[in-house]
Amino acid sequence: MDQPGRTPPPRRRRDRLVEDSRHDPYRAPGKPSEDAVCRGCGLGVRSGRWQRCSTPWAPRETLCPACQRTQGPYPAGFLCLRGDFLRGHREEITSLIRHVEAREEAEHPLQRVIGIDEGDDGVLLVTTTGSHLARTLAQAVQRAYGGSLELRYAEGENLVRAVWER
Ligand SMILES: [Zn+2]
């Protein structure tokens, strides 16, 4: 949002995702067998389950699936927001998205917003580490502001693309 001129348009990001998706580290088979701590965000994995931990219990460092998606970047969810109404309510809608993100992350620590980028044409593209969060954000925006919402799920992949327009 800070430098709209330098943000690639949504289309290009999607194309890159398609190319990279077969190397997606998130889809590495199996869960971590050893307890470890994420060096990106400090989440811990114990018995294969990622959770918040106040004190690190395992010396081994790794990168949790959400940080892998953030650093890839390999988003699992894309929410595109557009339309004249959006242009007049950008701040409000962005803060709703941040609010819903914080609420969801409290329960699902691997569900996070990777970025909210503004395209040249005033379109906002929200990318997320989990498809669940993209869908939840899209539905929250529609519930609050009306408009039209299209949700598409990539076949055979845990990917969501949502387009909201008003
Ligand atoms: Zn992490």
What would you note in describing this structure?
- With 166 residues, the protein is α+β, with helices and mostly antiparallel strands.
- The chain has two domains: 4-18 and 74-165; 25-70, no CATH class.
- It has five helices and nine strands.
- The chain has a five-stranded mixed β-sheet with strand order 6-7-5-9-8. The protein has a four-stranded mixed β-sheet with strand order 3-2-1-4, with no helix packed on it.
- It is elongated.
- The two termini are 19 Å apart.
- The structure holds zinc ion.
- Residues 38, 40-41, 43, 64, 66-67 line the site of zinc ion.
Q: Helix amount, in percent?
A: 25-40%
Sum up the overall morphology in one term: elongated
Low-confidence stretches at least 5 residues in length (pLDDT < 50)?
A: 1-29
Largest sheet: 5 strands, mixed
Number of domain modules: 2
Bound molecules: zinc ion
Q: What spatial order of strands do you see in the largest sheet?
A: 6-7-5-9-8
Mean pLDDT: 83
Query: Helical stretch count?
Result: 5
Q: What's the β-strand tally?
A: 9
Give the radius of gyration: 17 Å
Percentage beta strand? 15-25%
Please report the distance between the alpha carbons of the first and last residues: 19 Å
The helix/strand order is HEEEEHEHHEEHEE
Q: Which class do the helix and strand fractions yield? A: alpha+beta
